[in-house]
Every structure is written in C-alpha cells, then in structure tokens.
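We modelled the chain as a single entity of 343 amino acids. Its sequence is:
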Amino acid sequence: MTEKQTIKIKKQKDATVEIEGEIAAEILEKHRARLFNEFKSGLEAPGFRKGKVPDELAKKQVHEKNLLEEAAYAALEEQYPLILELHDIEPITPPRIRITKLAFGTPLGFSLTVGVIPEFSLPHYKKIAKKVLEGKKDPEISEKDIEGVLVQVRAFRAPIKKGKEGEPDEAEALTDEFVKTLGDFESVEDFKRKIGENLKEEKKITIRREYREKIAEALVKETKIILPPMLLDEEVERVMHRIKEHAQKENISLDDYFSKIQKTEDAFRKEQREYADRQYKTKLILEKIAETEKITPTKEEFQHELSHFLSYYQDVEPETAERYVAETLKNEKTLQFLETQDS
C-alpha cells in the first residue's frame, strides 16, 4: 500500500462491505511490465531467438488492452489482502470485483463487494436449551421392539423348518445353541437382553440428534442475524454446479433431473438457500457460544481426533484436516455443553 492509494469503506446492514478506491499507477505498471516480459519471454520472430525479441516488435504482437486488464486484476490480487488487513475486514466470501477506471499511466479505480461475518448478539442460549430439553425423556424399549428384531433374525439367519405337504415353511424357534453361533451370547435371554440394550442405545442417539436439531432451530429463531446475500448465492450455485455435473454423468437434462425429484428449479434453489441460511446461522451461533464460554478441545482430544480423521482421509491437506477437526470438535463440545442445561 502507498500514500497515493485512496480507499473508502462502506459497511452495509446485510453484512456486506463495499470497498472503493484506487491503486497507484506505479503498482499497476509494475504488473503490466511483468506480464509483458512473461509474454515476451515466450515470443519468437524471424531473425530472433525465443525470448530475444526486441520490445518494439513484441509490443506489435501483444493486445495492450488485454494486458492492462490482466495487470489490473494482478494488482488487485496483490493489494486486496493488504486492504483487508489495514481496515480490519474479515471476509467470508470471495470479492465481487468491478474495475471503474483503467488507463495506462493513471491509478487503477476499482470497487469490491465482499461478505463479512455479521455482528449479532446471542440470545439467552442456556435458557433456550433448558426449555427445549424439558420434553426429553429416556428411551423405552418394549418387548414388541425386541420381538421385531427376533422376527428379522429368524427370517434371515435361523434355519428353515420344512412344513408338511400343503403347509408353509417356517423358521425354527431360536435356541441357546443357535444364538451362540450369532456372537458372544450365552443364551436366548442373554441375546434378548443385549438386543434391548442395542435398541436403547440406537434410540438414545436418535433422540439426541433430534433434540440437538431442536436446540439449533430454537437458537436460530431467537437470534437476530443477517447473513450476506452473496454468501447464500454462492452456496446455492455450488449445489447447482454439483447437480449439473451429476446430470451430465447420468446423461440427462436439468429439466429431467428436476422432474425426477418432482421439484421445479426455482423451488429447489429456494429450498437450498433456506437450508444454507439455517446451517450458516447455526455455525456462527455455536462458534460465538464457544467463544463466550471459552469452550475448546484439549490438545489430546484434538490429536486423537486428527489421527483418526487422517487414517480415513489420507489425501486431505494437513491444514484443511486440522481446521475441519478443530471446528468439528469445538461444535461437538458446545452442543454437549448445551445438553447439560437440562440438569
């Protein structure tokens, strides 16, 4: 950054920031000269070896307007991080760039729009979580639930007893000897007891997931937070890009795809935008609760989870893996903290 650069910052209510200003002519010229030299280094001409063509001849073969435009974007790419740091701006979206003035020997005029982390106040999250959890009950497993599993086991694993002529075949009753072949079971009663324990644990996981979703939904509802529209725009476009790739692989048109899922493209886009809105708001709220409550995983927890993650996803960049694991662990501990509000 130089003293010749002028920058104006305008913060909008929708969590976007508009950055207008100029970049000094000498910075633009530095990039124009670099790009010209790169072009010239690969140029050949009669009587001159590759890279030895004189400037006068090279200038006749270069498209000056295109060169200047490339230099403008190169200058912005260089200066953009410095502008953000100088004005304490934390973007959560790539910038939308508009060149407002571009001419040789003059400052580069530009306008940038970028989405930032919105400012918001947390609601009474402990009270909200406690109220949601008031309806939570321990799961109950009935004999009917256990019998349902036994029927499936008998249908798929138990020996088939041939019926008499004219009568249907049926699965033989489970015996102590048979259940021992299924795993570490001492008897039919032990088998039933462990089925009940497994079913109860599965229900616990389901109930926990449901109440976490209810807590998140209540927190979002009670939090006044506006996300930058461009953040949601980009998320919807990412989803649409994946849909288009999928349609191409399946050799079907987008119309056929949406007809198959029984939705219009507009309805699908609206649905995805609403989903992205909820997800991002939940993420930001949980992050702020973690910051307020000073919730953070221990080094041991982080290293254990990171090792586990990398054992499954070995091709992931280390920095990406570390960022993902740190965020996932912090969210998990924050949700666990909210779940304790029922006591």
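As a brief sanity check on the tokenised model: The first strand starts at residue 7 and ends at 11. The chain has four domains: 7-115, 119-224, 227-282, 293-343.
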